[in-house]
Amino acid sequence: MKTVYVDNNATTKVAPEVLEAMLPYFTEYYGNPSSMHFFGGQVQKKINEAREQVADLLGAEPSEIVFTSCGTESDNAAIFGTLDSYPERRHFVTTRVEHPAVGNVSTYLGRKGYRVSELSVDREGRLDLDELRETVTEETALVSVMYANNETGVVFPVEQVGAIVKEKGIPFHTDAVQAVGKIPINLKESTIDMLSLSGHKLHAPKGIGVLYIRKGTKFSPYMIGGHQERGRRGGTENVPYIIGLGKACELAKAHMEEENTRVRALRDYLEAKILEKIPNTLVNGDRVNRLPNTLSVSFEYVEGESILLLLSDLGICASSGSACTSGSLEPSHVLRAMGVPFTAAHGSVRFSLSIYNTKEEMDYIIEHLPGIIQRLRDISPFWHDYVKGRK
Amino acid sequence: MWDYTDKVKDHFLNPRNVGEVEDPDGVGEVGSLACGDALRLSFKLDENKRIKEVKFKTFGCASAIASSSALTEMIKGKTLEEAEKITNRDIAEYLGGLPEEKMHCSVMGREALSAAIANYRGQKVAKEEFEVVCKCFGVTDKEIERAVRENDLKTVEQVTYYTKAGGGCGSCHPKIEAILERVRKEMEKEAPPVKPMKKKLTNIQKVKLIEETLGREIIPALKADGGDLELIDVEGNKVYVALRGKCSFCPSSDVTLKQYVESKLREFVTDEIEVEEVRP
Predict the structure, then answer these.
(1) Which residues form the domain of A101?
(2) A387 at interface of B, judged by CB pairs closer than 8 A
(3) CB distance from A378 to chain B under 8 Å?
(4) pLDDT beyond 70 at A104
């Protein structure tokens, strides 16, 4: 059976070039970069190179890059590291649609006695900047607003958010795990103080992340240990993965145009065909300000997990915001925050593409998806009622 | 990915008896779009009052569809009295088991069957006789009690897995906790288990433990509902508390005190704890 992988917001394939760059650092150049001898020193040099490659993709200075173990660690470090630096400020601001790496930290802070404000979104998943303006005060320690949403692909106007936040002298963090590598980011001319990214979303392996910390930003280390990463993150460097991430960032920069032209066109083609061939289907999220690779669609009166399993049976790998896929009982917090009606929220499917996808694969999906949806609608009592009601 | 058995996959990919029986003798419908799953079951009896034809329509995940399909196969040819005896466990076992988080799918099957039989007998499924405990998913105390008994459930989390109750906003957790406590007690009376002894505490240890338990287990939950609680004094095993915030004028504060605060303290401190409210 062939595999059509369209779940790249969950994780991506490690690029062959990335793996190739990593391999020598397991068995050949295995020195500790902190060592005094030449054997460690040559590894240190490679890490510096990787740091430059990451900085280059982001328009940052290499010294502003801190390697971590994953996106979640980067988010936690940014939040706790900042709150620790401003112990007198007891207010945290974020949104209702964050990834759990920020969302659940926010819940935790609420339990710990912080005042927490979670900004709402509209039906298209867009922020209300006036609400943000009214929410931030002098006692706000940190504002954390994601760059792009993992479920819908909606891109927030982070620079405008940052401008409002900076005006009041408050640090600004953004979880850019889904944005980095998919849309151009230039931190040189930016209002962002801290930014999280995750390697495995851009064709590096799982287990490596970055926290960008702008020069001059107050930050207390979250992982306390050795002097690594200029004392901002203890722990011996994960050398092969850091080198892999460096290579992945170099590739991402080279592929940025393709991502925003060819991949975008594939996504738009898939979207148009699905809407054309399957009735009672709607696209979730702002279609203008959206990642080029992401499509979240809802099929009314059917349930997402069933769709995914039937797709999976044909080798097609996608995701859903339905309740049943996660083991929770309510549909995704993102779709609920957007007010997507229940008729559609349970039947949402996310397709997320990468540069490795082809037009043939889109055609394969389009060939089979209408039949799958119809098959489930034929079993669904609500579709039956809907059709009867229409007659 | 869920670890579904081959039988679940088979009944999902090739569901049996899909549709609606024409001119049915009984129809039962449970669940809703908001809940994320729903099942409509219809059947027809033959001259010997056995189920001749049964069909289902289901909106839901793979295990919901498979449970519905399995149920129709199980009850075909049975009398209503025989069919009534089927529990949600039987449905799950027929499928070779379901992940615990998905057991509510088998419960939905059993409920739809009950509703269809009641419909045949001309009984109204009178939800109003019961109390709706979980408002998010419309689950009654009777439904929770039955699931606890039939599946030997011990925690709120398990109740959520089996009935969905408490899986939404979570505000009914104290109520579920109270039902669990009552039903477990009744079940214990029927078959009393050996009680583990809790070690004896000094007074200081006891007070500390009470304070810890209040701070960790109880007060955060009350605060979530806009209430609060203050420890006034401890005398022997009598714990005197005052309710604050919304709790102080809440009509169900007695229930909160006895069934929630007291049961938590008994769980973590000692079985002999009695909680009394101090009113200003």
Answers:
(1) 16-252
(2) no
(3) yes
(4) yes
Instruction: Tell me the C-alpha distance between A333 and A287, whole Å.
Output: 19
Instruction: Fold for B6-120, please state it.
Output: Sufe protein. Chain: A (3.90.1010)
Angstrom distance (rounded) from CA B29 to CA B90: 20
Mutate to test the interface with A, among B20, B55, B59 (most CBs of A within 10 A): B59
Q: Please state which CATH number belongs to domain B127-190.
A: 1.10.10.1100
- Are residues A119 and A131 in contact, defined by beta-carbon separation less than 8 angstroms? yes
- From CA B83, how far away is CA B114, in angstroms rounded? 9
* H/E segment holding residue A281: strand A281-283
Closest Cβ opposite residue A303 in set B15, B36, B136: B36
CATH number of residue A73's parent domain: 3.40.640.10
Task: Give the span between the Cα atoms of B27 and B112, in whole angstroms.
Answer: 8
Q: pLDDT tens-digit profile of A258-306?
A: 999 999 999 999 999 999 999 999 999 999 999 999 999 999 999 999 9
**With 0-12 CB in 10 A as exposed, 13-18 as middle and 19+ as buried, what is A2?**
exposed
SS3 A351: strand
Looking at residue B264, what is its pLDDT? Answer: 86
- Report which of B66, B57, B75, B148 is spatially closest to residue B99, judged by C-alpha positions: B66
Residue A381 at interface with chain B, using a CB cutoff of 8 Å: yes
Phi, psi of B19 (to 5 degrees): 135, -160
Q: Alpha-carbon distance A35 to B17, whole Å?
A: 70
Q: Are A144 and A93 in contact (CB under 8 A)?
A: yes
Interface contact flag, A346 B36, Cβ < 8 Å: yes
**Record: contact A306-B60, CB cut-off 8 A:** yes
For domain B203-277, give its CATH number from 3.40.190.10, 3.20.20.300, 3.40.50.261, 3.30.300.130.
3.30.300.130
CB of A324 within 8 Å of a chain B CB? The answer is: yes
Alpha helices in chain A (DSSP H): 16-22, 24-27, 38-58, 71-85, 100-111, 129-135, 158-167, 239-258, 264-277, 304-313, 323-326, 333-338, 342-345, 359-379, 381-390
Active site (annotated) includes residue A324:
yes
Q: Are B34 and A341 in contact (CB under 8 A)?
A: no
In the structure encoding, which two tokens stand for residue B99, read together? 């992940």
Cβ–Cβ gap B60/A324 under 8 Å? yes
Burial label, B13 (beta-carbon count in 10 A; 0-12, 13-18, 19+): middle
Query: Is B40's CB within 8 Å of A381's CB?
Result: yes
Pairwise CA distance, residues A286 & B36, whole Å: 25
DSSP label at A13? P
pLDDT digits (tens, 9 = 90+) for B61-72: 899 999 999 999
Q: Which residues of A137-148 are buried (b: 16+ CB within 10 A; e: fewer)?
A: eeebbbbbbbbb
DSSP, collapsed to helix, strand or coil, labels residue B235 as strand
- Residue B195 DSSP symbol: P
ipTM (interface pTM): 0.85
Whether A303 and B18 lie within 8 Å, measured CB to CB: no
CA distance B225 to A303: 32
Query: Cβ(A357)–Cβ(A266) under 8 Å?
Result: yes
Burial A100-132 (b: 16+ CB within 10 A, else e): ebbbebbeebeeeebebbbbebeebbbbeeeeb
- In the chain, the amino acid numbered B134 is C
